[in-house]
Design brief:
Largest sheet: 7 strands, mixed
CATH topology: Rossmann fold
Radius of gyration: 14 Å
Strand content: 15-25%
Number of domains: 1
CATH architecture: 3-Layer(aba) Sandwich
Length: 140
């Protein structure tokens, strides 16, 4: 199974989650600057939600994906607003790319908010998310 991880992380919070997922599935997490291979079975895609929504660079990356990416699992971090899942999912569905219904989301440190997050517990939950997604895919 070809698994890829791509993320956009301005503060380092989403990178921490991407690295935890990567460690669990045995691949390297890469930024959205790196192209996704055509034969990707599962793409773990991470970003953050900002006041204005999903970052424009992440939107551009998603719009550049094609249907040869079979399935996408979304993960995100935020300090204040909701997860990025619904906005990212909407963009992927418009591209006819399958999106898993379960997501991973946790708080991310921003200024004095959520100090130390994502923490060790968050990263363990991210690893569990990765195990869940890869086990689901083995049966589909």
């Amino acid at each position: 199974m070809n698994i890829q991880i791509r993320y956009l992380s301005k503060s380092g919070n989403t990178k921490k989650v991407a690295d935890a997922i990567a460690k669990e599935v045995g691949v390297t997490a890469e930024t959205i600057e790196k192209r996704v291979p055509d034969d990707t079975d599962i793409l773990f895609l991470g970003g953050a939600m900002y006041w204005a929504g999903v970052d424009s660079k992440l939107k551009k990356f998603i719009l550049g994906l094609d249907c040869s990416v079979k399935k996408v699992a979304i993960f995100s971090t935020t300090a204040v607003v909701k997860s990025a899942y619904s906005e990212i999912k909407k963009l992927l569905i418009a591209k006819n790319i399958f999106v898993y219904e379960n997501e991973f989301h946790c708080k991310g440190e921003f200024l004095k908010l959520h100090k130390g997050r994502p923490n060790a517990d968050d990263l363990e939950l991210a690893k569990q998310f990765a195990r869940d997604i890869t086990s689901i895919s083995n049966f589909r």
